Amino acid sequence: MIERCKENPIITPADVKPSREGYRVLGAFNPGAVRFGDEILLLLRVAEGCEPREGYACVPVYRFEEGRSYPDILAFWLDDPEVELKDTRGVAYRGRNYLSTISHIRLARSRDGVHFTVEDRPFIYPIDEREEYGVEDARVTFIEGRYYINYTAVSRDSWATALAVTDDFHTVERLGLIFHPENKDVALFPERIGGKYYALHRPNNSGFGKASIWIAESPDLIHWGNHRCIVRPRDNPWESVKIGGGAPPVKTDEGWLIIYHGKGEAGYSLFGLLLDLEEPWRVVRRGATPLLTPEEPYEREGFFGNVVFSNGVVEKDGRLYIYYGASDETTCLAVADVNDILASL
Fold first, then answer.
1. What residues contact 24, with CB distance under 8 A and at least 6 apart?
2. Is the pLDDT at 87 greater than 80, yes or no?
């Protein structure tokens, strides 16, 4: 039903130029995806660390000065008693945490949907303290003639969801945070329903329950309300820990098709879900087993193994091109017929 591209991974860290000297690309993954003219564009999450330096722990940071931002490197002497290593994830110094990697969004372009050219410069990158630890996992939705891009903004205040808009993928207008911490996995519906905009989102559960898929509505894509939980994790090997939305919903005759992710003892897998066209908070059908699980070596081994994670889907020639991150390191492609996925739910 779902077929992996024989050329997977289609983008690796080696295909991406570092954004500055002293950085090295560790991951190019979890892309948003959209058709733009005769191209397919991917909005890659590019994770960068620092080149090793003997006797020092080096971390990438962004500096913000006089309304501008630029990437930099902090080097901590390992013999300094105020330096505390946080395994592979970062460094603590004088009570403040620094991450070992920082992410930005980079464009990649293709005519055939398989072979991509990655641009040399970041497209969306941190510009203020709300994004000081990076920007991650973009989704892009074409709504009423414009391309809306939502992404995870990471800072010392945890993670939240920001929104931007572009008409040409050269310039971008920032619209600010639309879901406060801690909320991510936001997917905008591509059209109004009953005169309102809708979005799936995933607030974090730090008390009761497990992280689940919620829906919210808005008059303007900025102010969101009437939140309700619509899908919760199930007690199975693939989604017993948490679930979250993926790419923007795909409209079909039978309902809104959602490719969502679940985390369980088997790692991260992809599932199918169908929501009602007129009442998108109502679940029509839900797949009992995953569409895709980590099986190939590039999905099981990498920066963070046993992960397949999608936030970019494009319809092409009657089929769904599902772009996904593998092991938080590479970008891969799986292709499926829409009707086959619907029949499996």
1. 18, 48, 49, 50, 51
2. no
